[in-house]
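ok so I'm stuck.
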Amino acid sequence: MKLFDVYSLLDLEPVRAEGAYLWDKNGVEYLDFYGGHAVISIGHTHPHYVEKITDQLSRIGFYSNAVINGLQVELAEKLGPLTGYPDYELFLCNSGAEANENAVKLASFTTGRSRVLAMHAAFHGRTSMAVALSDNPAIQAPANKTDNVTFIDLNDLEALERELLSEQYAAVIIEPIQGVGGIRMASDEFLHAARELCNRTGTLLVMDEVQSGYGRSGKFFAHQWSGVKADIVSMAKGIANGFPVGAIIISPEIPARKGMLGTTFGGSHLACAAAIAVADVVREENLVENAHLMGEKIIEGIKGVKGITDIRGRGLMIGIDLSVPQADFRRVLREKYHIMTGLTGQYTLRLLPPLVIGPKEVDRFVEAFRKTAAELCQ
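replied:
not stuck anymore, here's the structure
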């Protein structure tokens, strides 16, 4: 048997990691400015994280959600003050796609409506409804297609008002910072308008914070920069630092009904131990504030560099538009300077480093970026 050919793989096999660094099988060190696609929040192999998971696994790793699991309660209690949504309720699952799927399903159950308003260039995951909500024909199989989703442009206030006042929607789903869509940011005006129109029409406002949440933007959730409050917030990538955990937090005004949502693996003892460890470190090491400060330092360090056509993002979720293909730029950064970065589109470099990076790592990246730009952007 061989692996199904899904991904174009880099010629690199990490075998060890610590903090913001990776080592390949040949012992070569790499600075990780990709974070495993925004998943690594508290750094690789953080001692508290390793201790929590190891200790939990030595006692009990899994039992079904048919029994009491005190770790789920502990996690919910820790996330209350961290998220800024202390009165919301927590539902645990396994991935960002599942989180978005359950968010929309819950909105439909609650409102009795079937339609969802989503954004062009959005990406909400690869499960059935999440794919239908993603404006990407390449991932939509015939079975995923539905007439229940309408797409508008992000920040198009006229289209937002037209749709919500002319049609009954169960939910509006928005990434406050579009990740796959190119680090495109929802404006404060757009988010406030969405909140006001949802209030007027009985529509639920869902914020997809799978990539932009968990401190990455310099606030716990990126939509909190606008001061807007969502009805449901989905999250996943940074929750458990690589252990597969997804979640939604739900307004107390949305009634629960037994059997409405469910999961076999979600919120297992081991998953909760991992997520609790991350919550501890995010709080104790002030990683949300660090993301804000280090993001500003990165942008300040590369501002004005020849070859940059635009810089977007907040905190440690940054998109850099280049005058040369990002594939060439990433290759030089990786092969010559041993720095891992991400991508979106043909010309955009995407930075999603662990939230633990400090001035030393930022300075190394800025120096390598400047040298790469000088080499490629003549």
